[in-house]
Task: structure prediction
Amino acid sequence: MEFKKVIGDRRTIRFFDPNRPVEPEKIQIMLEAANLSSRAVNADFAKAIVCLRDELPPDIVESLKTPTTTTQFDLAPVYIFWYGDTKFADGAQQRLKELVDLGALPVTHGWSHTYVDEVAYAQVIAPMSQIEMANMWAISVETGLAINQAILAGVDEGLGVGLHAFNTEVAKKALNVPDTWAPMWVLFVGYPAEDRLGGGARPRRPLSNSYYRGSYGNPWEDVPGVKEKLREAGMLQDGMDADKRHAEVRALADRFGLPT
Ligand SMILES: Cc1cc2nc3c(=O)[nH]c(=O)nc-3n(C[C@H](O)[C@H](O)[C@H](O)COP(=O)(O)O)c2cc1C
Result:
């Protein structure tokens, strides 16, 4: 699929075909995409545990639910539990030196083995990794980058995906999660039982609501023609028709025996 169309087609899918398995190679493609995400100090911040719903005991599946994540656990055949590694600074010097040796971190920008040891590591990475708030901030951003690449790769493979909260205490015990991993989100994966496009694009505010030019208070002004181009490419799509969507949800509720 074209990249812009992948972005345009992504939706949080909440109704999966519970009986249609996902090809393991497609899950690997998602993990490979995550593994290519940009990352500070070339560290493996993002950690993930892939679980098949039907391989988990039903009582565990039930107890992984949260107030905002319910039926998805029953319908999605695959769960990817995402974590952030609080030990990302371990081995940072070695990884940075590898990048220096390869020229990815070029001498023109001040990089050398000494600079890694005395400046980048000693003055930036090591102190930062000691501050819990900074640590969590870095881990969260990094994991988000990786998750999003996995999400888009999944959409490109024709899968439905949805990122959600989960009961992290239950998962920690059930999945043998290391103490040094900070829980992030669970990514549900499967083939959509609902319309692949979830009934249409979700409402979004104009760019000028959030993005600025030069300084805050000077909202970004749309460049003429861009929105039309993105519509043609499938990145910007029609919004939802509420009546149609509610009818679809009622039909899905009948199919899966869900409340309405
Ligand atoms: C980090 C993150 C956490 C989310 N957690 C939940 C959740 O716990 N329950 C839920 O129903 N949706 C959750 N969502 C989905 C959002 O509600 C969804 O993104 C929103 O409805 C916009 O729809 P879209 O993703 O189809 O554009 C989450 C999304 C993100 C990005």
About this structure: The mean pLDDT is 97. Residues 11-12, 68-69, 163-165, 185, 198, 202 surround flavin mononucleotide (CB under 6 Å). The CA atoms of residues 131 and 137 lie 10 Å apart. Strands lie at 46-52, 78-85, 160-164, 181-190.
